[in-house]
């Protein structure tokens, strides 16, 4: 049973998302000024803040995602700013090497962060505006095996599709994803209202 306070928090997040998404569409010319209000309310009443995504898996994100793959619940983010995504978050993003694919990685640094390599031959550098640095969860893997920013470099923030908030590896092995404390606080009412494990299981190809 979802409490009333949780519903209010969920509604506030949904309204904020609806405004941000509609304003974004307006700014790129997808809707005009007369359609803006309707777009906000349509998104608020008919849309959801999450979607299920099947990920191929692999060793890079173990144990968050099983090596054989699994279904993740992704929270949509209309504005990809340091106020919406945070260092420590698990994100779904476009594969820098295969633009038609999506990969799951942990956000390790945002714009303005200095990146220092363990290899003394590499010069430190600072991430530019709207850039981020992502890493595989499996620290044992080498850069080429992990396929993260150590291999393909900084990633544009616009390549982030959303934040992964729940992972279903099998029907009996699933749970919330360990994101940054701020993100987990923001996402808790979304999980409480929109999480449907049975529906996630239907998307699982295991």
UniProtKB/TrEMBL annotation:
Name the InterPro entries for this protein.
Answer: LexA/Signal_pep-like_sf, Mitochondrial_IM_protease, Peptidase_S26
Q: Which GO terms describe its biological process?
A: signal peptide processing
* Matching CDD domains: S26_SPase_I
Q: Which GO terms describe its molecular function?
A: serine-type endopeptidase activity
Q: What is this protein called?
A: Peptidase S26 domain-containing protein
Organism from which the protein derives: Brachypodium distachyon (Purple false brome)
């Amino acid at each position: 049973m979802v409490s009333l306070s949780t519903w209010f928090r969920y509604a506030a997040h949904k309204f904020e998302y609806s405004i941000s998404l509609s304003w974004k569409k307006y700014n790129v010319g997808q809707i005009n000024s007369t359609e803006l209000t309707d777009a906000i309310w349509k998104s608020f009443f008919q849309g959801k803040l999450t979607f299920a995504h099947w990920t191929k898996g692999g060793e890079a994100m173990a144990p968050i995602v099983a090596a054989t793959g699994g279904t993740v619940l992704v929270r949509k983010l209309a504005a990809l700013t340091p106020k919406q995504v945070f260092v420590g978050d698990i994100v779904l993003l476009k594969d820098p090497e295969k633009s038609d694919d999506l990969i799951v990685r942990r956000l390790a640094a945002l714009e303005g962060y200095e990146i220092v390599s363990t290899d003394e031959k590499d010069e430190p550098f600072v991430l530019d505006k709207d850039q981020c640095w992502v890493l595989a969860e499996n620290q044992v893997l080498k850069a080429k095996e992990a396929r993260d920013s150590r291999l393909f470099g900084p990633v544009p923030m616009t390549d982030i599709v959303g934040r992964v908030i729940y992972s279903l590896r099998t029907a009996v092995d699933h749970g919330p994803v360990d994101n940054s404390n701020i993100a987990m606080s923001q996402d808790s009412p979304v999980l409480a209202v929109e999480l449907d494990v049975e529906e996630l299981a239907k998307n699982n190809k295991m």
